[in-house]
Amino acid sequence: MRIAFVSLMYDAPWGGSEVLWSQTAARALAAGHNVFISTHEWHEKPVPLQELEAAGASFYFRPRYQPTLRFRTANLFRRLPRGGVLPEIVALRSFAPNVVVVSQGGWNDLLFHQQLADWLHSIPFLLICHNYHDPVRQDDKQRERMIALFSRAKEVLMISNQQLRVLCRQLAAPLTNARVVQNPLNLPAAYPLPYPELLADTVPQLSVVGSFDVDRKGQDVLLETLATPTWQGRHWHLNLYGRGPDQAYLERLISMYGLQRRVSLHGHVSDSSVIWRNTHLLILPSRIESGPMVVQEALLCGRPVLTANVGLVQDWVQEGETGFIADTASVIALGQALDRAWARRADWASMGQEGAARATALLIPDPAGDFLQHVQASV
Questions:
Q1: Average of per-residue pLDDT across 189-211
Q2: Residue 61 has pLDDT above 90, yes or no
Q3: What's the structural domain count of the chain?
Q4: Which of 67, 68, 152, 168 is 20 to 30 Å apart from 161, CA to CA?
């Protein structure tokens, strides 16, 4: 079978939205399928793409749009010899796939790729939605276009039940061909991990794991919450794991709030067991999130979770039993959830144990293999 994977993620070289399609592509190559990949070009090619290329995938790298006259002129000249057809579409036609997987970093990215959307009329395709916004403003024309795109797909894949409910409401359409999938997780070889000792004189280690992108991940509002007098009077340490465009901003916030001795930035840590061995409570203060994989990973590793109510949270976290849910990523809501968690810190170890048992029952052991079966069945 000839399978094309088109990633529309635009704002970063790599991210959580790329894991499902890329691992599925790797499984397809291992099974002997021909694989074509179209994604944006970056100065440094992400390691998973290098591995897919070494495994035999063929690629087309799209130039990232730049609002400059030079870019627009060059883009026009690239299209002129083909009658205005984008080189990406020419490459896809040449590959002649049996089926196409389109992965959106958001949920309506395809609206902004009109030639790709038009070409997909002629080929079976599956559409992955990795995010959503609530509320979101759209007019009836945009709504109808997105409903039409969803209806033409063999399957529309969502990352959480909440995402599916919200998008059905926003589109005023039932989306009968949609289903919820799981992303592959970054887990230690063996889990859950022993809970780190938390004695009366132990400083609790709070951890946030995610890209330094505060618009989505909300580390800024968590720092404001922890800078309040109540939390200044408590003993705790916050560990921020990740990297991203807002690192300098976070460092300035930490300095402004006087938290230099209480907050550590660790960068990206590839071995997740290092994180969980030094974590008593995971915090996810995200404003925008559909499938926060780190929530699933923390629970499976035996760590309680404090999280804003986004995406899959309500499917995986039980308030007061395996974690604590804030209504929103606001100072008030996070502060209230943190207070509830602090009062129960003697129970964190047992809550982590319960969370691991419940999460294990929900886990799909091979998401990429499951997805590949659906891709094969869509032709």
A1: 96
A2: yes
A3: 2
A4: 152
